[in-house]
Design brief:
206 residues, Rossmann fold, 4-stranded mixed sheet, 37% helix, alpha/beta, binds 5-O-phosphono-beta-D-ribofuranosylamine, two-stranded parallel sheet
């Protein structure tokens, strides 16, 4: 997993594994921030950690190459980003085609990028939520795997809305990873199907 901060999604994923809701293992946590709480959570769970700072590399491509090598060294099958504050480019993504996933605190494609909850409040939407998606070279723009809807309440501020969205993040991220672990996912263009049946049903809608 790649995380820059608090690591609550990492924790939710490790908890889901511990409780048997997710078949898998967190093989490594990489952070670009020495103070990331995610690193501490990983250490407590006895998961290997690596601090990798971009300043130690000559270019973004070199940094990404090192990140990819590190993930491969630990035999990562899937790379899950959770609050990783960098846009990954082709150098990294090329090593893990359709194997890099992210969680974002809005109903994409609405409100990509930073401060998604604040963007939602400013826009006046009545519902927001979160999205687990595959990562492509854009900002929060890859094919959508799972989403959860969260109502925006009249007295919500960024903090209260973020908190309620986070509860749903912790629920859907492990579920999305479990679907990947079960090999159930078919990705065709922007569409992600969980079964052949769904593919033929939804495919015929268009
Ligand atoms: C989450 O809100 C996630 O959606 C966003 O960054 C935050 C990370 O939180 N991409 P945490 O570090 O997992 O607690």
């Amino acid at each position: 997993m790649l995380a820059s901060g608090r690591g609550s999604n990492l924790q939710a994923i490790m908890d889901a594994i511990g409780e048997g809701r997710l078949n898998g293992r967190v093989v490594l946590v990489i952070s670009d921030n020495p103070h990331a709480r995610a690193l501490e959570r990983a250490r407590i769970a006895k998961v290997p950690t690596r601090l990798m700072l971009p300043s130690g590399y000559q270019s973004k491509a070199d940094y990404e190459k090192a990140l990819a090598q590190c993930c491969q060294e630990y035999k990562a099958q899937v790379v899950a980003l959770a609050g990783f504050m960098r846009i990954l480019g082709p150098t990294f993504l090329g090593h893990f085609p359709q194997r890099v996933v992210n969680i974002h605190p809005s109903l994409l494609p609405a409100f990509p990028g930073l401060h998604a909850q604040e963007q939602a409040l400013r826009h006046g939407v009545r519902f927001s939520g979160c999205t687990v998606h595959f990562v492509d070279e854009g900002v929060d723009s890859g094919p959508i795997i799972l989403q959860a809807v969260v109502p925006v309440l009249a007295d919500d501020d960024e903090e209260t809305l973020s908190e309620r969205i986070l509860v749903q993040e912790h629920r859907i991220y492990p579920r999305a990873l479990q679907l990947i672990a079960e090999g159930r996912m078919l990705v065709e263009g922007r569409r992600v199907y969980f079964t052949e049946m769904e593919r033929s049903e939804r495919g015929s809608e268009t």
